From TrEMBL:
<dbReference type="Pfam" id="PF05258">
    <property type="entry name" value="DciA"/>
</dbReference>
<dbReference type="InterPro" id="IPR007922">
    <property type="entry name" value="DciA-like"/>
</dbReference>
<protein>
    <recommendedName>
        <fullName>DUF721 domain-containing protein</fullName>
    </recommendedName>
</protein>
Length: 178
């Protein structure tokens, strides 16, 4: 069971000579080991899996991998037998199993990067606002903002009035006027 009681920050920064290794040094070494392990595993996996999976942790002889969604997790499961035997023979002889978990934030982050890469490689560099749909503030919403501004503190009132003034204009054009 974990020790979840509050600890003094002094215990995290104790010097190495007094204690052997401080908790921060242990965490740093574990993070470096995971980064190296991640590079090794990505070199063993097919290139199409690289953006959608990564090493999450290695503890108690179990390697935990993350996949962006269930599709990539299934594809990664096909690679587990080969990955397990290769890792046991070359890098981690004590490895007992590989656990795969879904991490949706990995998918979101990577898909945004993939879209940016695809956009930049297929088109000439231009203003990103041209690709976004135009959004407009309705006159009814502007009236509601003005009523709200009447009962707001001065600083908020100015901002709400500026926002209400955008009614009928596309927000991308409003950004250019500033």
């Amino acid at each position: 069971m974990r020790d979840s009681r509050p600890q003094s920050l002094d215990t995290l920064f104790e010097d190495e000579a007094a204690v052997g290794k401080s908790p921060l040094q242990i965490i740093q070494q574990h993070a470096i080991a995971l980064l190296k392990l991640n590079r090794a595993i990505l070199s063993l996996l097919p290139a199409q899996l690289h953006p959608w999976c990564r090493v999450a942790n290695y503890r108690k002889h179990i390697l935990v991998l993350e996949a962006g969604n269930a599709n990539w997790m299934t594809r990664l499961r096909y690679e587990v037998p080969v990955l397990l035997s290769t890792l046991r023979s070359e890098i981690l002889p004590s490895l007992s199993s590989i656990d795969i978990r879904i991490n949706p934030s990995l998918m979101v982050k990577r898909s945004n990067n993939a879209q940016d890469f695809a956009r930049s490689s297929t088109t000439a560099p231009n203003n990103d606002n041209q690709n976004l749909p135009k959004r407009q503030l309705s006159h009814e919403s502007a009236e509601t903002l003005m009523v709200l501004a009447e009962h707001s503190p001065e600083k908020l009132k100015r901002k709400l009035e500026r926002l209400a003034a955008l009614a009928g204009e596309g927000t991308s054009t409003a950004k250019k006027k500033r």
